[in-house]
TrEMBL record:
It comes from the Bacteria. GO terms for cellular component: ATP-binding cassette (ABC) transporter complex; periplasmic space. Residues 1-18 form the signal peptide. Keywords: Plasmid, Signal. It comes from Deinococcus ficus. Residues 65-477 form the Solute-binding protein family domain. This is Solute-binding protein family 5 domain-containing protein.
Length: 557
């Protein structure tokens, strides 16, 4: 076996000088693969091979969760106990059969190992509510507690018992990868028992046995690597059937120009294209397919209004003046609605997104399962804006006026365009309305945002579960609470109701109510969503499916 793998790697490395073979994918990226330890990998070019080699219980198919190594799930009425039926006849790349014991070990290991910057740390924080292995956590987080939370039952099903309902559970489990227990234990990894439990808590596993010789259940298995290449081949025993492309080479090429040239010459099938200007030059090139309008995943671009700005240079609450603004200017709903009506989404899409953006109707990511397409976003209308401002602050704001400082981040065309649109339309509406645009460095802007010092902020937020997005943006307990100053008891109740319901079918109508309320209150509004781009060889088929799943097995020639 080792001889055949070595021969394959040499043959593939040598093949790069010519056009790519029909059964081989050459994917040129901008950075080398660092670690394929599934509990550790978070960087883009580490996650890509990890997702080909390993699999989780579910697949995040662009916001829809489909069974992978699980075939189904049942939950208790309170959502705290989830039971997973596992797929049969699944093999690891070393030929051993996957059992419930492997799945049990994999979840437990993910909740044990990994530094605070690892994927494992993020997942145990999400699933178990453990932000870090502090001294206090180490006293209470025992092997017995973990074993009770993750176990196999007598029927060979995996049972996960949590202390709360976790709506984002499937998203988390799509990132917990199943590994072969016996191979890891034999290689000196965690035994899976209480014996060395404490020694592996938070342990750095970037150079584990899996990092050196990855073994999973995925459609592709590891062949070889060097500083500039990572090579995979199709796993003949894959439960889902053999992928069309038998060999995959992830090739590091630092130069943007060199990658683009390789695509044009037929020496690469997919390359990382640095910007839309470069992409435009590839349109119409023989042998190249350009994708200009691919949807983005789990991201939402929004404008937020701060109702309690922490800036001593501004006026005290409720005090109006043409040359300044009160710290609580946006506590008046008519001010928020007026600003939203002044925003020209068409101009933003043209100038900030080069025409490649999709209008959104809520501040959820456009592919989110809870998004409601029947709701309507604020429409650009100077007439509506004037009507709202004439009502603001008991009718006083229109006659008194204001001056609002709006910052944009140096190097960020998005925030610069947002600032320009507001300045043009606000000052056009009323000669007593003024905007002072300031340029700040990104680090300073982020500090000002989180410190609650910005009246208006344009930012990108993310999350697979709607609660992650909406609670982060609007809750008084969320990370952005200082940036918004929102204190809305009804909103908090709606957030809790939607989050605590069990199952998407029960939660979706609650999110409709919540999103309707948010559109009415206008604590923030959605910006058009940027579309992503890509370029591939014209012989490559299925790139849209790959974009949705990140699975190379969806590709063919």
């Amino acid at each position: 076996m080792m001889r055949s793998l070595l021969s394959l790697s040499v043959a593939l490395m040598g093949s790069l000088a010519a056009a790519t073979p029909r059964d081989t994918l050459v994917y040129q990226v901008a950075a080398a693969v660092a670690s394929v330890e599934p509990a550790q990998a978070v960087a883009t070019y580490d996650v890509l091979p990890v997702q080909q080699i390993y699999e989780g219980l579910y697949l995040n198919n662009f916001g829809t969760y489909t069974p992978l190594l699980a075939t189904g799930m049942t939950q208790s009425k309170d959502g705290k106990v989830s039971t997973f039926t596992l797929r049969k006849n699944v093999k690891f790349h070393d030929g051993t059969a996957m059992t419930c014991a492997d799945v049990e070990y994999s979840l437990r290991r993910t909740f044990v190992v990994g530094t605070e910057t690892s994927l494992a740390a993020q997942l145990r924080s999400t699933v178990l509510g453990i932000p870090g292995f502090t001294a206090d956590v180490r006293k209470t987080y025992t092997f017995a507690k973990l074993a009770a939370a993750v176990r196999c039952n007598a029927a060979g099903q995996l049972v996960l018992t949590l202390d709360r309902n976790l709506p984002s559970l499937l998203d988390a489990l799509s990132q917990v990868y199943v590994v072969p227990r016996k191979a890891l234990v034999a290689g000196g990894d965690w035994s899976g028992t209480a014996r060395d439990f404490a020694a592996f808590l938070g342990k750095d596993v970037a150079n584990s046995v899996l990092a050196q010789k990855p073994v999973g259940t995925g459609a592709y298995q590891f062949v070889a690597r060097d500083p500039n290449r990572f090579i995979l081949k199709a796993f003949p025993g894959y439960w889902g059937g053999a992928p069309a492309l038998k060999n995959v080479i992830l090739q590091k090429v630092d130069s943007d120009t060199a990658r683009v040239l390789a695509l044009q010459k037929g020496d690469a099938d997919i390359v990382i294209v640095p910007d839309r200007d470069t992409l435009a030059k590839l349109k119409g090139v023989a042998g190249v397919t350009v994708y200009e309008s691919l949807p983005s995943r789990d991201l939402s671009t929004v404008v937020l209004f701060n109702q309690n700005v922490k800036n001593s240079a501004l006026l005290p609450a409720g005090q109006l003046a043409e040359n300044n603004m009160p710290v609580n200017l946006f506590s008046d709903i008519h001010v928020r609605r007026g600003f939203a009506a002044l925003f020209d989404a068409q101009t933003f899409t043209r100038d900030a997104l080069q025409g490649f953006g999709v209008t959104k109707n809520t501040t959820l990511p456009p592919n989110n399962w809870a998004d409601d397409k029947t709701l309507r976003p604020p429409a650009y209308s100077l007439k509506t804006a004037e009507a709202e401002f004439r009502q603001a602050w008991g009718g006083k704001l229109w006659s008194t006026g204001f001056t609002i400082p709006i910052d944009f981040f140096a190097g960020s065309g998005l925030s610069e365009v947002v600032s320009g649109i507001f300045k043009q339309n606000i000052e056009r509406l009323n000669p007593k309305f003024h905007v002072q645009v300031n340029t700040v460095e990104l680090s300073a802007a982020n500090a000002a945002l989180l410190g609650g010092k910005l009246p208006v902020a344009a930012l990108t937020w993310g999350g697979a579960d709607p609660d992650t997005v909406l609670r982060g943006l609007y809750s008084a307990q969320g990370i952005l609470a200082p940036a918004t100053g929102i204190r809305d008891a009804k909103l908090e109740t709606l957030l809790d109701q939607a989050n605590n319901a069990v199952g998407q079918s029960a939660r979706k109508p609650l999110y409709r109510t919540l999103l309707t309320y948010l559109n009415q209150q206008m604590y923030g509004f959605p910006l058009p969503q940027p579309l992503t781009w890509a370029a591939t060889a014209s012989t490559l088929k299925g790139y849209q499916n790959f974009h949705r799943t990140n699975l190379l097995r969806t590709l063919s020639k």
